[in-house]
Amino acid sequence: MRNIYKCVVCGTFTEDSTHCGKPAKLVINGELRNRLSHLMTYLLRHNPGAVGLSMDREGWVGINKLVNAIRTRWNPGAYSWLTTEHVLAVALMDPKGRFEVRDGMIRARYGHNKSLNVDIRYDVDNEVSVLYHGTTKEALTRIMREGIKPMNRKYVHLVLDLRDAYEVALRHGSDVVILKVNADCLRKSGQQVLIATDRVRLTSYVPPQCIESVINPRD
Q: Which phi and psi (to 5°) does residue 67 adopt?
């Protein structure tokens, strides 16, 4: 991941080392950004209890509480450098919009584990017609028989862009395929299409008949 800087003139976080015609201040380098992003994702989506955090019904936790919990309870000493500014920079500059920040609070927008008592309200997308889901060839036979299930998450994650689907698939293996999903079919099957971010959509289940085609990225 790229470094994150902060403009010394307007205070904007940026990946450019110059902003508003001035050298920007380095906030966090790419290596630490990547490490912190993964940790924040893990804690806010899957296991806040790992650092003694509790979130409200909509998944919010105080940013200061998150910073203090990571500094003191997650591998103490490894994150002694962490400040609120680092968390804000990573959250606000996340390329996929995984995090949401509001009034000193932070939450993951989507991807929560089923075991968490979190209920986030999403807007419904009644317009998108085509969505994509990346997976492995190994899982393909089961999916074409049973559909796409959320497994240990609250929702199935679908994306609007083929490249995003490919990147997601590669997290699970190297021999991957991309499934093209008919969003109108989902709606007719009683499944809502929910807006998580401008790139990610959620649904409770994708029936096999709503999978239009299987795309081989190598083609």
A: -60, -50
pLDDT, tens digit, 9 for 90 and up, residues 101-110: 999 999 999 9
Joined together, the tokens standing for residue 214 give 């299987």
Q: What is residue 61's predicted lDDT score, i.e. its pLDDT?
A: 98
Quick check: 109 and 194 in contact, CB under 8 A? no
- Asked whether residue 118 is domain-assigned, the answer is no
One domain for residues 100 and 130:
no
The identity of residue 51, as a single letter, is V
**41 lies in which domain range?**
4-108
User: Does residue 113 belong to any structural domain of this protein?
Assistant: no
Q: Into how many domains does the chain fold?
A: 2
Q: What is the pLDDT of residue 75?
A: 87
What is the tens place of the pLDDT at every residue in 1-36? 999 999 999 999 999 999 999 999 999 999 999 999
